[in-house]
Description:
Blueprint: E1 5-8, E2 20-27, H1 36-43, H2 46-56, E3 68-74, E4 77-85, H3 99-116, E5 119-122, H4 134-144, E6 152-156
Parallel strand pairs: 1-6, 2-4, 2-5, 5-6
Antiparallel strand pairs: 3-4
Helix pairs in contact: 3-4
Amino acid sequence: MREIRYVRGDATSPQAKGVKVVAHVCNDLGGWGKGFVLEISRRWPEPEADYRAWHRDRARNDFGLGAVRFVRVEPYIWVANMVGQRGMKRGSKGVPIRYDALGRCLAALGDEALELGASVHMPRIGCGLAGGKWSQVEPLIEERLSGREVPVTVYDFD
């Protein structure tokens, strides 16, 4: 099993050679506009446009919890829009993150990364606005990615 590499920096500027996938968690409401997605949008317009179209056409596609879309943004960089949170607010039903959906997303991300021969780069997904706990997210990453020999770098922004 590969170790997860932790670095300080910006996950939208992945530090590795070869093909890279920048992964992040989206909600199931079609909302895009807070948190890490703002950094993605500042760097590349395609992931937001694809997510909004994917949500808009959800009656005719696979949009929903546990689904992932891979958007190529540069010749060697992809962005993985992973639908891993229910709604956007904390409330009577708890925090928005859905660990089972995130697990399915990470499994699909692992499949795609292995096919592309890519490394995966992310912030501490699901632990910001989604309200998750890293102690529950990290084992999912270890099982679905690094445990399958997918190189993973987690970025803590300064």
